[in-house]
Amino acid sequence: MTASSLRRDDADLRVFDSGAGFPVVFQHGLGGDNRQIVENFPDSPDYRRLTVECRAQGRSTPGSVRPFSKAMFADDVLAACDAKGIERFVVGGISMGAAIALHIATRHPDRVAGLVLARPAWLFGPAPDNMRPYAEVADWMKRLPRDAARAAFANSATADQLRRQAPDNLASLLGFFDRPDFAVTADLLGDIARDGPGVSEAEVAALRVPTLVIGHGVDHAHPLAYAQKLAATIPGARMVEIPPKAIDKSRHISEFRAALDHFLRVNFPAREPNR
Fold first, then answer.
1. 158: number of Cβ within 10 Å
2. Based on the domain organization, do 116 and 207 belong to the same domain?
């Protein structure tokens, strides 16, 4: 795996490039980084995996352009593909990464050979209810100092509900209070939680590429119903339900990798040329 930097506006983006086969552009979730993709992507030399750590995440700097948006991150990903000479690719991602992938697939269908939507947190519109806790965390961050903001959210009705129904989601949300750049994190969470993929249901229904959708239960941020809806909307999409990460993380990762590996091998069996 090689790591390089890409300058976009006044942001420095970290780009990871591994393998030598058919290109698969795979993006992380909100607050994630390349390590999340390494954990979930199958180990295979048959595919060239490209991941861009989005602005203000991983080792990429935030830059000064606001608001953050999935369209901005999608443009950054395409710029990285251009810089690497990658013209056509499978695009996919986890959570926010799935929304970025969906945006790219609908806006640049000539460049997309296949699509993977894993644990989707958005359907078609902005600010879905499942992302409200992220917006709430951002609001507390903007109103109070770090420790007071963490305490206020931890004692909120939202946190109490998640503590009972989705403790894994709560742990993730509380982790945002420990990030070093508090103000940037508040901007990132608020902007992305209130944003959408920038696509319509009709545009998604018009997709005509091999598609894999991965979903699971016991997850407030990534409703299984969202995965099922996207799989039903995209013609010919394959839906795979895997064990919830909150219940059995090792099986979750194992079955995630297996589903993705099977999809790639069935639909892109050879080391096809990039162009």
1. 16
2. yes
All residues at 6 or more sequence positions from 218 whose CB lies less than 8 Å from its CB, including other chains: 166, 168, 244, 246, 247
Considering the entire predicted model, what is its pTM? 0.96
Residues 134 and 122 in one domain: no
**Sequence-distant (≥ 6) Cβ neighbours of residue 165 within 8 angstroms:** 220
Residues 6 or more apart whose Cβ sits within 8 Å of residue 231: 211, 213, 215, 237, 238, 239
User: Which candidate, 99, 137, 142, 138, places its Cα nearest to that of 117?
Assistant: 99
Per-block average pLDDT, block size 10, for the chain (275 residues)?
Answer: 96 94 97 97 91 98 98 98 97 98 98 98 97 98 98 98 93 97 98 98 98 96 98 98 94 98 92 46
Q: Which of 7, 99, 88 has the alpha carbon at shortest distance from 50?
A: 88
Structural domain total, the chain:
2
For residue 206, what is the domain's CATH number? 3.40.50.1820
Residue 161 lies in domain? 129-191
Between CA 60 and CA 53 the distance in angstroms is 6
Strand order in the sheet with 22-27: 2-8, 11-18, 47-53, 22-27, 89-94, 112-118, 211-215, 238-241
Q: Using only C-alpha atoms, what is the Rg of the chain?
A: 18
Instruction: Tell me which DSSP letter residue 46 carries.
Output: T
DSSP state at residue 131: G
Asked if the structure places residue 272 within a domain, the reply is no
Specify the amino acid at residue 105: A
Q: 95: closest CA among 64, 54, 47, 62?
A: 54
Out of 191, 206, 241, a domain closes at 191
Q: Looking at residue 237, what DSSP letter applies?
A: P
The answer to whether residues 113 and 231 belong to one domain is: yes
